[in-house]
């Protein structure tokens, strides 16, 4: 007798991983204060005022030392994000024991969460270039917005080295117009060795123009910044596997602690399009 209703189930060992934005901006900012990132830690950053320059000759070649003022900036490592999931013994056998993809996927989601946090800090605490009067609707407007960020950085005496620009997909859509104006504008730039998220190499003095869907979604936005202008401190505090005491399963869990801060608002210039309506 034929068994016509039997439908075998096939369990694949390779799991489908989700798409993630991954780290785009966090690798490009200041990591000098990383050290040991523990929950509840605060990094105290001291900034000292620039000494005054005197006319030595006009002062009869007499120098009177001045007292320099200092300011403390607190970088809080106060973000704690975690994941945890059960791996049933049955599931483990059906998937040939391979759940590395799930763990990797969870780790990527934690990175995406941290990236969203840093971008939100940059938008909220950077310096607004657009006062709300300009609506971006084409390549010319978007290109001029990038130029405005560059000009604002230069006017603030921000070093020209290690400048980056990050844009969201709505802004990229304006830059990548059918006429190919971005390619024309970038003809003198570097086309090789682009990092994660880069849509173009050197442009308008920026080392790279990066794209992130996590930046101010829905509003064409660009942020021009210098690497030292923002700081990020991060550590994957714990990734562990342990036995579940209430069922036949293992627990896989992880904890990510981090913090981010705009250290110099003039080193982070933000241009967000006004409402088109």
Describe the largest sheet: 6 strands, mixed
Number of strands: 11
SS field, number of helical segments: 5
What percent of the residues sit in helical stretches (DSSP H or I)?
10-25%
Spatial arrangement of strands, main beta sheet: 4-11-8-5-7-6
Shape: flat
Taking the alpha carbons of the first and last residues, their distance comes to: 71 Å
Number of domains: 1
What is the mean predicted local confidence, pLDDT?
80
Structural class: alpha+beta
What is the radius of gyration? 25 Å
Query: Poorly predicted ranges (pLDDT <50, ≥5 residues)?
Result: 1-7, 10-15
The succession of helices and strands, N to C, reads EEEHHEHEHHEEEEEE
Strand content: 25-35%
List keywords for this structure.
277 residues, alpha+beta, disordered N terminus
Write the layout of secondary structure elements.
Elements: E1 42-48, E2 70-76, E3 79-88, H1 89-94, H2 100-125, E4 127-128, H3 139-155, E5 163-167, H4 169-175, H5 181-185, E6 198-200, E7 208-211, E8 221-226, E9 230-243, E10 249-262, E11 268-272
Parallel strand pairs: 4-11, 5-7
Antiparallel strand pairs: 1-2, 3-10, 5-8, 6-7, 8-11, 9-10
Helix pairs in contact: 3-4
